[in-house]
Structures are given as structure tokens and as C-alpha cells.
User: What shape does this take?
Amino acid sequence: MTFPRTNSRSTHTCRVANSDAPFYLSIPHGVRPPHVCPGVEALCIFDCMRPKTPRPPLALRELRMPSVVSSPALRWFLPPDETHSTLRILQLSQPHVDDDDVFRNCARHITSLTLRRSPYPGFFEHFTALEELTIAGVWWQSPYPSFPKTLRHLRLQVARLAYDVLPEIADTIRQLPHLHTLSVKENLVQGRSSYPTLLQACRDKHVNILVDPRGDDAPVSTVDRREP
Assistant: This one.
């Protein structure tokens, strides 16, 4: 399956999986998206320009926007209303309160969420079925907001922060009754005097800690696993 070429750069970054797997389309920086067919189930968007065409009947299961995307583009790709939302996996740079209405349309269906920056107050109240939250940037403000009680996996995908976040994460763990796993980068916990506090909070709540020694593709080791 092919899509219209927008420029030479897009021929290397716009790609679609074969017909035996869910379609996946990646749209690069500064490129107007090609025609998106209803068969696309996963999109990764890098600061694309506002689409000029009407929104097709998308049935996205996964939408990733790792960089800042304009509000018009965000509203074009997110489900227009709650009843037609098939979205389950969402990645954003920083949610803006002006787009609260569109987040509310799809939030209760989202099970996995990735954020680079702290969201606005009240953002997480819409996510009533969220099971996995990934903190993917160093720009989160302290104190952390109250996370949904439905969380089962909290992932800190950052190697270092400007301050010691581990005591705050320990307090967060105590407030999440269904949390099963905490994933952290080794650099985030290595040499921290507060690491024992985090370990104790995990033991008390029977939470597994997965420590990533290097990058995202490195093998993960389990530390202080303790079943309930």
C-alpha cells in the first residue's frame, strides 16, 4: 500500500506496515500528512502542519505525538467524540488546558499514556481506566499530581532529574492500590541515598521494581521482587 509523496524527506519517514499487520504511519516534522485511510491503527506524528482535508473516519488504537503539536492538528487526529473513540494508547509532549474538551472525549478509554511534561491540574481526572503511565521527560514539576488509582505500571523513562524524585515516587506508590510494577532507569537510582526509601515503599506495597541499566532496548533486571 502506498501514500502520496509530499516531499523527498517524507519518503524515508512515512511508512506503512504490510497488509498482514496493523497499519503504522509516521509523519515527520513540518510535513502535511498524506491521505490517512481508515485502515491505519497507529500513528506517530512529529509536529506536522495542520491538515486541510476533512477528518476521515479513523479508528486509531495508538496515537503518539512525542513533540509539540498544534492544537488544530491535535484536534484533527484525536477522536471527535467519546462514543467513537477506539484509542487505547496515547503519547503527548505537554497537554494544554485549552484542549481539555478533546482529551475528555477519549480519556476514559485510554489504558497507556506517555507524557514528557507535567499536565495541567485536573488532567488525570478524565483517565478512569489508565493502567500504564510513562514519565518521558525531565520537565515534570514537583509535587507530582495525583495519578489515577487504576495504575498498574508506573514507568520513569528518564536517566536523570534536577532533583531527587525518589522520595516523591515512594509517596506516590503508597497512594496507588493496584500498582504492580515500577520501571526506572539505573542512573536515576544509582548512588541515591533515598533509594532504600523507595525500595521499602515497594516492599510494603508488593510492587516489583524493574531497573533498566542502559537505554530503552537494554535488558531489564528485576530488583527486590516480592509477591503478595
User: Anything to note?
Assistant: Strands lie at 23-27, 40-45, 62-64, 89-92, 112-117, 132-139, 153-156, 181-185, 208-212, 221-223. The helical segments are 10-13, 71-77, 100-106, 166-174, 186-189, 195-205. Confidence is low (pLDDT under 50) at residues 1-25, 28-32, 216-228. DSSP finds six helices and ten strands in the chain.
